[in-house]
Amino acid sequence: MSQPIVAGCDVGSIWAKAVIFDGKEILASAVIPSSPFPAKTAEKVLEKAANKAGVSMGDIEYVVGTGYGRVNVPNAKKTVSEIACHAKGAAWSCSDVATLIDVGGQDCKVISLASDGHGRVMDFSMNDKCAAGTGRFLEVMAGVFELPIEEFGERALKAERILGISSQCTVFAESEVVCLIAQGHEIEQIIAGICDAVAARVSVLVPRVGLREKVYMSGGVAKNIGVRQALQRRLRVTIWELTEDPLIIGALGAAVLAMDALRQQQ
Amino acid sequence: MSVLERLIEYGESNPNVEVEEWKKTGNKVLGYWCSYIPPEIIHAAGALPYRLRGMGATGTDKADHDMSPVCNCSFPRAVLDLAHRGKYDFLDGILGMNGCDHTRRAFELWVERLQPTFSHFVYVPRTRKQVSVEKYAQELEKLKTGLEKYLGTEITGEALQQSVDLYNDNRTLLKQVQELFKKDRPPLTGTQFHHIINASVSISPVRLNLLLRELLEEVKDLDGPEDDKARLMIVGWVGDDTMLHRIIEESGGLVVMDNCCFGARAFWDPVVFDSKHPLASLGRSYLDRTGCPRMFATFNERYGMFQQAVGDYRVDGIVRTRLQFCDLHGVENVFFHKRKEQLGVPMSAPMVLDYIGQDEGRVRTRMEAFIEQLQQ
C-alpha cells in the first residue's frame, strides 16, 4: 500500500504557504502572496503545491490549516495555531531546536521546545499589538528605499556603523528614517539601524520564555541576514539555519500534524 | 426566561431593566468607580449603587479628546466615552476614587466636562497601617455626610448593618456559584459567570440575592457538557467585557477561576462589621481583603489565593493578561512569572489587551496556542 499523502497550509498575512508531505519527505511546497480572499489564496497555494508534487487534490487525505487565515483553508479537517505548527515543523527539520524565533509578516514569537525532539511547545511569547519587529515593518522600510525586500539584509551588512532608530511604532519609525535620509546618512547605516530595531523588538520577548540553545529562526524574516546578525549580536548566541526554507516551516509543521492526525484516525 | 438568562441579560446590558424599575420608584442611582467604594454606604442611603462599566462602548473617540489613547488605559476611556454619549444620563451622581490614576483622572474629566448633579471623591489609602484605616474611616464619614446631604436622608447604623448583611449574602452566594467550578463538569461556563458578576454590581442586592438563590437551586446538581476542556485561571483582566472569557472558551478552554477586577476578588472576603465602629470596621474590611494590586505589599496574599485555587479548581494553566498601560497588573505579571515554577502549572506569556476588543484574531491565536500547549 502506498504512503498516504497529507498537506499543511499556512495562510499568513503576507505569504500563503503549502507543503505536501508523505510522512517521510516533503513532496513539494509552494509559496504565493496572500490576497484579501484567504479561502481562494489557500486553495491556490494548495493546488500549486499539489501540482508540483504531481498529485491531485483528491489524493490528499488530510489537510491542516494554520496562520491567521487558518479557518479559511478549504477541506482542512483541523486548524492548529501557528505556534504549535512552527515548533513541529522546526523540530522535523532539525531535532535539536531548543528555542525557535519565528518572525512572520504580522507577528513574531519566541517558542521554547521540549528537548525530546518532537516539537512540543513548552512556553512561548508573542509580540503585543505592534507591527515593529515584523516582516511588515521591514516591507514598509524597504518601500521607503525602493529596494526589493530580498536585498535589504545584505545591504545592512555593508554598514560600518548602525544608526539608532528609536521609534517603536512603524509609522513613526518610517518618518524617522525619512529624516535620516534627508540628513544625508548612508543608506546602509540606516538599513542596519532598521534591522537592529527589528532585532531589538524580537529580543525583548526572549527573557519571557528563557533562551536555551540551540537557537533557530523561522518565518520570512529568517531570510534577512541583517536581522539574523543583529539578533545574534543582541542575544549573544549563534542562530542556526534550519534544513528547510524558513518560510514554509509553519506549513511543514501543519503537514506533520496532519500526518499524526491521519494516523490517529486510522 | 430562565434565571440564568435573566442574570446574563443584566450583565450584558448597561444599564439593565432593573435600573429602569428602580428609577421608576423615584429612588436615585449613583455610579461608582472601582470596588474600593463600599456600595453598602450608598445602599444604606437609599440609592442604588451602580458600578461604572464600559459595556456597550464601541469606541473611545469622545474620551480620547481629553485622555490620549497613546498612554491611557482603554477601560476608563470606554466608560468616559459612554458618559460623553449620554449613556450614563440615568445616573444621579458619580463617586470617584484613586483606584488607579487612569480611573481617577477619568472621574475628574467627567466632573469637569459633564458636570454631574452630584459627585464625590473618596481617597482610599494604599496600605493597611492603622493610620490608613483611620484615614479611610474619615473618608467614608465624608462620603456618608455627602450622601446624606445630597439625598436628604440619614444613614443610620441599623440601615448600614442591613446593607452590609445584604452585600455579605451576595458575596456568600457568588462564592457558592464560584465553587460550582470545582466540579469536573461545571454547570456554568466562565463566560456566563462573568456576566453574572457584572450583573451583581449593577442591580439591587436584594434582587441579586433572590436571583442567585434561584440560580443555585436550578443548577447546583447539574453537570456541564462532557468535553475535555483546559481548566484555566485568568489573572490581570480589568473591566466587565467578556471578550477574553468568550475567546478562551471558544478555543477549548474553561475559565474556572480568576483574579479579575470584575471577578472573584470582588466577592472573596466578607465585610466584618462592628456596629460600635461602623465605618471604621467597614473600611478595615475593604483594606484587609484579598484585593487589588493597587494595595502595597499584598502580592503574597493574592499569590496564596492562586496557589490554593490551582489545587481546589484543578487549574491546568494560568492566562496572564493586562490592559495596555496598566501598571498595576503589568508589574504583577512579572511577580507571577518569577514564581511560575512554584505554582506548578504553565503560565501564558502576558497578553496585552485593549478593553474594546478589535483584535480578536490576535487574542484567539494566542489562546488557541496556549491551550494546545496544555493539551499536547
TrEMBL record, chain A:
Pfam family, one: BcrAD_BadFG
Matches recorded under InterPro entries: ATPase_BadF, ATPase_NBD, CoA_E_activase_dom, Dehydratase_Activator_Redct
Keyword terms, alphabetized: Iron, Iron-sulfur, Metal-binding
One GO MF term attached to the UniProt entry: metal ion binding
Cofactors demanded by this protein: [4Fe-4S] cluster
Domain ATPase BadF/BadG/BcrA/BcrD type, first and last residues per copy: 8-258
CDD domains: ASKHA_NBD_BcrAD_BadFG_HgdC_HadI
NCBIfam families associated with the record: CoA_E_activ (TIGR00241)
Protein known as: 2-hydroxyglutaryl-CoA dehydratase
Species assigned in the record: Candidatus Desulfacyla euxinica
Automatic annotation (TrEMBL), chain B:
Classification via InterPro entries: FldB/FldC_alpha/beta
Gene3D superfamilies referenced in this protein's UniProt entry, alphabetically: 1.20.1270.370, 3.40.50.11890, 3.40.50.11900
Cross-referenced PANTHER family: 2-HYDROXYGLUTARYL-COA DEHYDRATASE, D-COMPONENT-RELATED, DEHYDRATASE SUBUNIT MJ0007-RELATED
Family: Belongs to the FldB/FldC dehydratase alpha/beta subunit family.
The protein, known as: 2-hydroxyacyl-CoA dehydratase
Organism listed in the record: Candidatus Desulfacyla euxinica
Lineage: Bacteria, Deltaproteobacteria, Candidatus Desulfacyla
